[in-house]
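Changelog-adjacent note: as of this version, every example in the card shows the full chain rather than a window. The one below runs 167 residues end to end.
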Amino acid sequence: MSIKRWFKHWSITPLAVKRAFPDAALERIQQAIAESEKTHSGEIRFAVESALPWSYLRRNAPARQRAAMVFSKLRVWDTEHNNGVLIYVDLADRAIEIVADRGIARHVTHAEWEAICEAMRARFRADDYAGGVVAAVEAVGAKLATHFPLAAGESNPNELSNKPAIL
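Full-length structure tokens:
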């Protein structure tokens, strides 16, 4: 375990999440998810945490491992068409991960997900955290709408909460 990484995670408090994502930003993200889900049958979740849990730091686990666990804990995999997508942010590592269930993952390449993450990073560098997440939700929603569109008159039953998860 890197002392520098440990110190970074130790020094970043949950207040960092509140600064980056105040209540109005979280509401904006929730609304963006709800709007996106009107165009496809997929489910989008957003999760953010200030720092990784000690158990991940002790074994020097990458943020991707934590994102996969959050994907499971939030039950993003538990959708009828296996088309749930998690957008995960770890503020301490400045890590952004997109974890997609197998239904959508077979249609969208890793490079396409990474491009969405890179666009988020650019917005984050400009201190536009909410804008970065909303743009990512829209981009993920566009991928889902391409591969899992709703038929005319069909609605998407909300299988997962649209509320951002603060871990």
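Structural remarks: The radius of gyration is 16 Å.
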